[in-house]
Amino acid sequence: MPTIHLGVYLTRGQETYRAVKYALEAGYRGIDSAQMYGNEKETGQAILDFLASDANTNALRREDIHLTSKLASNSTYDAARKSIKASVERCGLGYIDLFLLHSPYGGRELRLESWRAVEDAIRDGEVRIGGVSNYGVKHLQELLDSEPRIRPAVNQIEVHPFNTRMDLTSFCQEHDIVVEAYAPLARAMRMKHAAVVSLSRKYSCTPAQLLVRWSLQHGYVPLPKSTNKERIKSNADIGGFSIDEEDMATLDELDEYLVTDWDPTDCP
Ligand SMILES: NC(=O)c1ccc[n+]([C@@H]2O[C@H](COP(=O)([O-])OP(=O)(O)OC[C@H]3O[C@@H](n4cnc5c(N)ncnc54)[C@H](OP(=O)(O)O)[C@@H]3O)[C@@H](O)[C@H]2O)c1
C-alpha cells in the first residue's frame, strides 16, 4: 500500500476530479474515497484520465494506483454484496484496491454479515484488500473472534497528535492491522498551536508536513485532504526531514481527544 493517500472527503464533482489529478501528478499513488462521499465516480475517472494522459510520465498502470472506498452502512449480506458491486461499477476501474466497512454502526450481526460480503468480494476479484474503519478494540476483537476467512488488514481511524488513540493503535499494530490515520492534519484546527508552530520552525517545514511526518514515524498511513494544488503537493513532500524522538514525545503529549468529525469507536 502507498504510504500517503489523498483524502477526498467533503469534495464533489470537478473539485474531486481536479484534486485527484493534482495528487497523482504530485506523486501520490493512493486515493481515499467512500460511498458516503458521493465522489467514487469522479475519483475513478480522474485516475483513468491521469493514466491515459501525457502527465503520466512514468507510464503507470491501473495496478500502480491504490483506490479505497467504504461501505456507507453495515447491512445484510445481500445488500452489502450488492452495494460493493455498485461501488466497483461506479469507480470504473475494474476493481477496488481496499474496501472498508465505514463504521461499526448497526450491531454485531450486520457487522459480521457485511464483513462476509467483503470477503466474497475479495474472492470474486472485485476487491483486493478488506478492512474496517472507526472500529474500537471491542469491534476488532469481535471480528477476530468470529474466525473470519480473511482478517481485516486495515483499521482507518482518526489519529493525530491531538487525538493519539494509543490504546487502539497499539492493539491494531499488535494484530498486524495497518492503522490508516484520518484527519491527520486535525482538520487544520491546530495549525497555529504553539508546539506545532515551534517544531515546524525547527524542522523548516509546514505545520501540515510536521503532522504527516509524525503519522508516518508512528507507522501509520496518513490520508491528508486538500483540494489546493500547492497544499496537495507540499503535504506529501516530507522526505527531507525526520522528527527526533524527543520531539515525537512532545507531539504525543498534545493528546486532548480532539474529535474533528465523529467517533463511533465505542458504539454497541
Ligand atoms: N473513515 C472515516 O470515518 C473518515 C472520517 C474523516 C476523514 N476520513 C478520510 O481522511 C481524510 C482526511 O481527513 P479530513 O479531510 O477530515 O481532515 P484533514 O486531512 O486532517 O484536514 C483537511 C483540512 O485541512 C486543510 N489543509 C490541507 N492542507 C493544508 C495545509 N498544508 N495547510 C493548512 N490547511 C490545510 C484542508 O483545506 P484545503 O482543502 O482548502 O487545503 C481541509 O480543510 C478525508 O478526506 C477522508 O478521506 C475518513
TrEMBL record:
<protein>
    <submittedName>
        <fullName>Aldo/keto reductase</fullName>
    </submittedName>
</protein>
<dbReference type="InterPro" id="IPR020471">
    <property type="entry name" value="AKR"/>
</dbReference>
<feature type="domain" description="NADP-dependent oxidoreductase">
    <location>
        <begin position="14"/>
        <end position="256"/>
    </location>
</feature>
<dbReference type="GO" id="GO:0016616">
    <property type="term" value="F:oxidoreductase activity, acting on the CH-OH group of donors, NAD or NADP as acceptor"/>
</dbReference>
<dbReference type="InterPro" id="IPR023210">
    <property type="entry name" value="NADP_OxRdtase_dom"/>
</dbReference>
<feature type="active site" description="Proton donor">
    <location>
        <position position="37"/>
    </location>
</feature>
<dbReference type="InterPro" id="IPR018170">
    <property type="entry name" value="Aldo/ket_reductase_CS"/>
</dbReference>
<keyword id="KW-0560">Oxidoreductase</keyword>
<dbReference type="InterPro" id="IPR036812">
    <property type="entry name" value="NAD(P)_OxRdtase_dom_sf"/>
</dbReference>
<dbReference type="Pfam" id="PF00248">
    <property type="entry name" value="Aldo_ket_red"/>
</dbReference>
<feature type="site" description="Lowers pKa of active site Tyr">
    <location>
        <position position="70"/>
    </location>
</feature>
<feature type="binding site">
    <location>
        <position position="102"/>
    </location>
    <ligand>
        <name>substrate</name>
    </ligand>
</feature>
